[in-house]
Q: What sequence folds into this?
């Protein structure tokens, strides 16, 4: 009985290779991003399997956090596509993921990607380098092209009112 359990455990370990920290590495490009509030921005993560065996099926998950205590971050506001299912990465191979985010808060932020087995093992995820994000507050009088309408409509109404009064006084 013991041999059967041991053989099954050994077969399972061989059939489902792990994501070992020393084997899987992550690289980001660019490492620093400056953008304005409300703008979309992008970065890439390259995941490399430096081991001699393919990885188990893995997933990559994007995390976003504020570097300031007073700013609340809801990562789903920044990106609705935060988890990517990658499958197995062959030995010596790499895969690159393009991440698109929207700057929804002004301030200083960090984003990083974690890679872990899709099977949900208790193994520690492999975390990539931090992407530092600076978001400038965008102050504008012409928010989304509204300024011409905000000035034009009252001006047009005033012009119509004046022309109607002039016509009435001429009669």
A:
């Amino acid at each position: 009985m013991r041999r059967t359990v041991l053989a099954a455990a050994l077969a399972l370990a061989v059939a489902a290779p792990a994501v070992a920290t020393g084997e899987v590495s992550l690289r980001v490009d660019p490492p620093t991003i400056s953008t304005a509030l409300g703008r979309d921005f992008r970065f890439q993560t390259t995941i490399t399997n430096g081991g001699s065996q393919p990885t188990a099926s893995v997933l990559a998950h994007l995390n976003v956090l504020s570097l300031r205590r007073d700013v609340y971050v809801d990562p789903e506001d920044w990106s609705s596509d935060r988890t990517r299912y990658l499958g197995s990465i062959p030995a010596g191979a790499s895969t690159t993921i393009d991440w698109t985010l929207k700057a929804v808060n002004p301030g200083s932020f960090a984003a990083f990607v974690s890679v872990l087995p899709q099977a949900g093992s208790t193994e520690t995820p492999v975390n990539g380098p931090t992407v530092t994000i600076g978001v400038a507050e965008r102050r504008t009088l012409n928010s989304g092209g509204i300024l011409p309408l905000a000035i034009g409509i009252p001006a047009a109404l005033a012009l119509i009112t004046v022309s109607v009064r002039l016509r009435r006084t001429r009669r």
User: Anything to note?
Assistant: The chain has three helices and nine strands. The beta strands are 24-29, 32-36, 40-49, 58-66, 83-87, 94-102, 107-117, 126-127, 131-136.
